[in-house]
Amino acid sequence: MRRIIKLVILALAAAAGACASAGGGSGGEQRLPLSAAVDSVALVEALRRIPAPDPSWFNVFRVEFDSAGRPEPVEAVSRRLPDSYALPVANLITAHLRPQPPRRRPFAALVRVVAGPDPRLEMPDFRERPPLLINRDWLGSQMSELAQHAVEAGPTFPAGGAQVIVKMRVEEDGTVSSAAVVRSSGFPTLDLRAVEIVRQGRFRPATLDEHPVRVWVRLPLSIVVPRP
User: Fold this and answer.
1) Could you tell me if residue 216 is left (phi over 0), alpha (psi between -120 and 50 degrees) or otherwise beta?
2) pLDDT of residue 172
3) What's the N-to-C CA distance of the chain in angstroms?
4) Phi and psi for 114 in degrees, rounded to 5?
5) Is the CB of residue 209 less than 8 Å from the CB of residue 19?
6) CB 184 within 8 A of CB 191
7) Residue 180: is its pLDDT beyond 90?
8) What local confidence, expressed as pLDDT, does residue 116 receive?
9) pLDDT at residue 20 in the model
């Protein structure tokens, strides 16, 4: 009797944070207070030394640590400041991150940097909306084809199935600009194809306070092979 492959898309991680973590993370991610994430006093002093654009401009940056306490690259999640200012600010934030102990789950903070001669850091209560997958049916059909490759793997494919977790960046226009495997299924060919499929995902973009933002999303994909 031919084995039946059941594909389960377990979750679109909200977190990039919980809002696919406005800025990117995984579902179950913890939020970190600003003072615990960065040395804010020293950071503000460092920001004063950067030539500032229009003082009415601001940008939101995502500070994220993995469960081992290692920092992820700091990145702007909204593009209200020119790159000539936003990139140095991201580097300064990285340089002023506080050491973090390991935790059970990834943890993150969203920081708003207000530009100008008197810069300041804020952590408002953002209204976050996660990205919404638009072409879910298409993605499902492509993953069904991927499941057939698992069948072709024959006895080497585990009876309990396998899971690949892909981390992707969803841009402000809802397209996927970057995707990579963060946890392999154990089958490199399946991993590669999963990344190719996810890159073609189309989303209603995530928002912060009703403004579209880029976010990182972790997408766990499980291929389950039921017993005959």
Assistant:
1) beta
2) 87
3) 7
4) -95, 125
5) no
6) yes
7) yes
8) 74
9) 45
111-133 confidence digits (pLDDT tens): 888 877 788 888 877 777 888 88
**Pair 109, 98: CB distance under 8 Å:** no
pTM, rounded to two decimals: 0.65
Spatial CA neighbour of 223 closest among 10, 6, 12, 13: 6
Q: Per-residue pLDDT for 166 more than 50?
A: yes
Rounded distance, CA 80 to CA 86, Å? 9
Q: Are 162 and 222 in contact (CB under 8 A)?
A: yes
Is-contact 179 198, C-beta < 8 A?
yes
pLDDT at 11: 33
Upper half-sphere CA count for residue 36 (Cβ side, 13 Å): 13
Distance, in Å, from the CA atom of 85 to the CA atom of 89, rounded to the nearest integer, reads 6
Give per-residue burial for 156-194: e unless 16+ CB within 10 Å, then b. Answer: ebeeebbbbbbbbbbbbebebeebebeeebebeebbebb
Alpha carbon distances (Å) from 228 to 43, 145, 159, 162: 60, 20, 10, 17
Tell me the pLDDT of the chain averaged across its residues.
Answer: 76
pLDDT score, position 31: 64
Give the integer Cα–Cα distance in Å for 93 and 73. 10
C-alpha–C-alpha distance, residues 77 and 79, integer Å: 7
More confident residue, 47 or 8: 47
User: Encoding tokens for residue 115?
Assistant: 């530009």
Rounded CA-CA distance 174/135 in Å is 11
